[in-house]
Write a structure and sequence with these properties.
Length: about 230
């Protein structure tokens, strides 16, 4: 069974905007896929469906075996433990240090604070930001904030990582570093979906490309085995 399965999923916002239009999609465990498409295509809406921030108006969604359309609110924490997210509008806690921001993700998934001194440095080392552990978000560059958000998503050892434009504000060197990190996490078994506008980045890696346009999947390219 796929790690992520969407069957005939339609998302219609309150104002009538159709963000996803009868989408069928299966992503297997340990797959890496880019999600591309123009502004407004439905990429972020897709990710929000996968963490049940949005419940579709029609269709079924399975994530790691859970049927999200039937999930009880009491089961939501399980999903939070399985899915790490980096969203477009990065929200770091402004009054908290980098360390505390990352530790906060562990608290949110019920991990005891005694684990912090092992898990937080591990996650910060992954994004090469150990030296900024005591910094506050306002003391960081845009790219560094993005990396903190990534550390926060990875600290829970997620089964699935959803990265929405994680290289959006980064120069090409940092973009490449973030990509290498995502690929490394993927090689360790995490299923990764990465939304991006960067065709150069997509073209540089032989990975699945799911293209959305007006809420529909218009292309699903799988590179052959090489
Ligand atoms: N809360 C909302 N209420 C109404 N419409 C929304 C809402 N959120 C998004 N939309 C609309 O849904 C469509 C899909 O938006 P979405 O954010 O999923 O696109 P996207 O592919 O992520 O775009 P971008 O590349 O700009 O991030 C757009 O037409 C958008 O205006
Ligand atoms: Mg978006």
């Amino acid at each position: 069974m796929g790690m992520i399965i969407l069957r005939e999923v339609t998302v219609r916002y309150e104002d009538g905007t159709v963000a996803l239009d009868n989408v069928n999609l299966t992503v297997e465990k340990s797959e890496f896929a880019f999600v591309v498409g123009p502004t407004g295509a439905g990429k972020s809406s897709l990710f929000k469906v996968l963490i049940r921030e949005i419940v579709p108006s029609h269709g079924t969604v399975f994530v790691a075996g859970y049927d999200l359309t039937r999930m009880k609110p009491s089961q939501a924490p399980y999903l939070r433990r399985l899915v790490g997210t980096v969203f477009q509008d990065i929200l770091l806690l402004p009054e908290r240090t980098v360390w505390e921001n990352v530790a906060f993700a562990l608290r949110a998934t019920g991990v005891a604070s005694s684990e912090d001194k092992r898990e937080v440095p591990r996650a910060l080392a992954m994004v090469d930001l150990l030296d900024k552990a005591k910094a506050f978000p306002w003391q960081l560059s845009g790219g560094e904030k993005q990396k903190v958000a990534l550390a926060r998503a990875l600290v829970i050892n997620p089964l699935i990582l959803l990265a929405d434009e994680p290289t959006g504000n980064l120069d090409s060197q940092s973009s490449r570093e973030v990509m290498e990190l995502l690929l490394r996490v993927n090689r360790q078994g995490t299923t990764v979906l990465m939304a991006t506008h960067d065709p150069f980045l997509v073209g540089s890696y032989r990975k699945r490309v799911i293209e959305l346009n007006s809420g529909k999947i218009v292309r699903d390219y799988m590179p052959g085995v090489s």
